[in-house]
């Protein structure tokens, strides 16, 4: 079992470009979560998705950020027109169950986005 | 909204000694879970230990144990017989027991642990 796979591991974008971060959950996991870690800070929840559905996007910035988890393929976190403040590590986690039955996540190793 | 506070940005310990990392949280819920995660320089988030709020017994995993004080909303991590490989950033995290909100972790700001040989 390969675990949660995130790619790329490092991504450099110029201001105004688009960033696409990919996350393949653990095999059999249908719940995906995205978190952002700004320098010197803890992780902050962004969005929770199930296959083809956004369940909770209360942590997503209202503009430029979107996420999807299609029926086939990885989950994608998309950041349009990136700015320097978007520079951070973005983590994906997956779980087999949700809510009370979710005893723990498995995290990926993150994508470090640098905006220059 | 729930908040998690780690008041020690940095801690250090001698190899083979014991260290305790502090965590407090604020919630109005009675059903929740608490976690300690370790983040080494590789950036991988590794679950260290988990505590269910309804359980009075403190969780233990080998050299790692917690002191869960529900009334005081305190959840400290004790690392015994510290090893060089324990050096990492440690995050305390809270999760509600609810269905949708229970899928979201709220993290503290972290404590950087240094282990001295």
Query: What is the 3D form of chain B?
Result: globular
Largest pleated sheet of chain B? 6 strands, mixed
Query: Total number of helical segments of chain A?
Result: 0
Strand content of chain A: over 45%
* DSSP strand content of chain B: over 45%
Question: Oligomerization state of this entry?
Answer: heterodimer
- Total number of strands of chain B: 12
The helix/strand class of chain A is mainly beta
Overall shape of chain A: globular
Radius of gyration of chain B: 14 Å
Mean pLDDT of chain B: 92
Tally the helices of chain B: what do you get?
0
What separation lies between the terminal Cα atoms of chain A?
36 Å
What are the key terms here?
heterodimer, A: 116 residues, mainly beta, 7-stranded mixed sheet, 4-stranded antiparallel sheet, 11 strands, B: 117 residues, 6-stranded mixed sheet
Structural overview:
The complex is a heterodimer of chains A (116) and B (117). Chain A is an all-beta fold and 116 residues long. Helix content of chain A is 0%, strand content 48%. Chain A contains no helices and 11 strands. In chain A, the strands form 2 sheets. In chain A, strands 2, 4, 5, 6, 9, 10 and 11 form a 7-stranded mixed beta sheet that branches. In chain A, strands 1-3-8-7 form a 4-stranded antiparallel beta sheet, with no helix packed on it. In chain A, strand 7 and strand 8 (75-79) form a beta hairpin. Chain B has 117 residues and is mainly beta. Chain B has strands at residues 3-5, 10-14, 19-21, 24-26, 32-39, 46-52, 60-61, 64-69, 74-79, 88-96, 105-107, 111-116. Chain B is globular, with a radius of gyration of 14 Å. Classes of the chains: A mainly beta (116), B mainly beta (117). Chains A and B meet through strand 4, strand 5 and strand 9 of A and strand 6 and strand 11 of B.
């Amino acid at each position: 079992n390969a675990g949660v796979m995130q790619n790329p591991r490092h991504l450099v974008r110029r201001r105004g470009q688009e960033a696409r971060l990919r996350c393949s959950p653990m095999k059999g996991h249908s719940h995906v979560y995205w978190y952002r870690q700004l320098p010197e800070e803890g992780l902050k929840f962004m969005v929770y998705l199930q296959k083809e559905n956004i369940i909770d996007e209360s942590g997503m910035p209202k503009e430029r950020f979107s996420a999807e988890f299609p029926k086939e393929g990885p989950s994608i976190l998309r950041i349009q027109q990136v700015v320097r403040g978007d520079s951070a590590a973005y983590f994906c986690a997956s779980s087999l169950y949700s809510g009370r039955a979710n005893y723990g996540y498995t995290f990926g190793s993150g994508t470090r986005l640098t905006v220059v | 909204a729930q908040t998690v506070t780690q008041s020690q940005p940095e801690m250090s310990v001698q190899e083979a000694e014991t260290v305790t990392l502090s965590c407090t949280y604020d919630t109005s819920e009675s059903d929740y879970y608490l976690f300690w995660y370790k983040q080494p320089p590789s950036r991988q988030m590794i679950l260290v230990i988990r505590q269910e709020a309804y359980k009075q017994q403190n969780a233990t995993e080998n050299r790692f144990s917690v002191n869960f004080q529900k009334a005081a909303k305190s959840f400290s991590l004790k690392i015994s017989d510290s090893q060089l490989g324990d050096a990492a950033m440690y995050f305390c995290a809270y999760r509600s027991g609810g269905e949708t909100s229970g899928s979201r972790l709220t993290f503290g700001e972290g404590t950087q642990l240094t282990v001295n040989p």
